[in-house]
Amino acid sequence: MSVPGRNSPTSVARHPAERAGRPPSALARLRDSDLWYSFTRSPITVISALIVLLFFLGALFAPWIAPYNPFDPASLNLMDGFTPPMGEAFSGNSYLLGTDDQGRDVLSAILYGARISLFVGFCAVLFAMVLGISLGLLAGYKGGWIDSLIMRIADVQLSFPAILVALLIFGVARATLPRSFQEDMVIYVLIVAIGLSDWVQYARTVRGTTMVEKNKEYVQAARVIGVHPMLIMLRHVLPNVMGPVLVIATIGLALAIIAEATLSFLGVGVPPTTPSLGTLIRIGNDYLFSGEWWITLFPGLALILLALSVNLLGDWLRDALNPKLR
Questions:
Q1: Is the pLDDT of residue 25 over 60?
Q2: According to the UniProt record, where is the region Disordered (predicted)?
Q3: Owning domain of residue 121
Q4: pLDDT tens digit string along 40-71?
């Protein structure tokens, strides 16, 4: 009588759920994956993930955890302006990171400002992903003059710095919008400007991968049985090109946050009434040389910490998804 091997159907199941006759949960599969193993063995990655999680939770629950509402004029006291960190304010209130020129709590302003920065960054990356993946799939699968046209547009855009492209798009959009809608639409215009300046890297990556995938047997078999080209691109090709795209999106999130902060610092981003991290840095920069260093230092440190943590997560994800490094 032969003894069943390890890979035989009668061998012992790997998970307790399999021994009970049911498939393992998604959480159990995640904990047994190479991705989770690589994540837990990298202390820098774990610390970066915790920092990013803290920023997300702080931004999401800012109305509940912020000590003060920095955008409520009724709660502001101009006499509390320029209070240093842990210093005694005129009103008797305590401010952990001090106040700005209008008496707004810097810690609360950072929590609220992170909401704007993260929202703009996420939406800009999502917009750039959708546009870049769509054009990359179309260029790589169709080829011909469509491929040449899209890639030449991408080459022209790559010859200019992304921040200059974003400034141009933002300026044109602000000029064409009615003046009564500019304040309400400025955040969405900022998202479109940053997204249009970052779609090229997604399109070029997806195009190269699509040109490889479209010549494989499973795509040719789908063509033979008469599947529509759009369905082939969405159902068969797209899932196989998402690995590199996720890596680019993770790193692109940090770049989008920095781009938003740069535009806001230059005075063409979000209005001062709803400041982001970049706006807070610009406000504090006016008083940097007069001794009120904390107004720009703490928002700047928050921006650096957030961007660096997201970049480190992107570097880890790139290495973890690279089969040559396993």
A1: yes
A2: 1-24
A3: 43-71+100-325
A4: 888 999 999 999 999 999 999 998 999 888 87
Please answer whether residues 299 and 113 qualify as being in contact, where contact means their C-beta atoms are separated by less than 8 angstroms: yes
Whether the CA torsion 266, 55, 322, 29 is positive or negative: it is: negative
Question: At a CB cut-off of 8 Å and minimum separation 6, what does 194 contact?
Answer: 120, 124, 128, 166, 256, 259, 260, 263
**Is position 5 within any domain?**
no
Domain count, the chain: 1
Full-model pTM: 0.85
| Nearest Cα to Cα of residue 104 among 56, 54, 61, 67 | 67
Q: What is the pLDDT of residue 326?
A: 58
Q: How many alpha carbons fall within 13 Å on the CB side of residue 296?
A: 16
How far is residue 122's CA from residue 119's CA, in Å, rounded to a whole number?
5
Reported for 46-51, long-range contacts at CB under 8 A and 24+ positions apart, including other chains, are: 47/309, 48/308, 48/309, 48/310, 48/312, 48/313, 48/316, 49/309, 49/313, 51/305, 51/306, 51/309
**In CATH, what number is assigned to the domain containing residue 279?**
1.10.3720.10
Cβ neighbors of 181 (< 8 A, separation 6 or more) are none
Note the pLDDT tens digit of each residue in 261-297: 998 888 787 777 777 888 889 888 888 888 888 999 9
Residue 10 within any structural domain of the chain: no
Is 94 domain-assigned?
no
For 222-256, write each residue's pLDDT tens digit: 888 888 888 888 888 888 888 889 889 998 999 99
Instruction: Report the distance separating Cα 318 and Cα 193, nearest Å.
Output: 26
Residue 162 has pLDDT above 90, yes or no: no
pLDDT of 9 over the 80 cut: no
* Residues 269, 190: Cα–Cα separation, whole Å: 7
pLDDT digits (tens, 9 = 90+) for 128-151: 999 999 999 999 998 889 999 999
Pair of tokens at residue 43: 């202390």
Q: Is residue 267 part of a domain?
A: yes
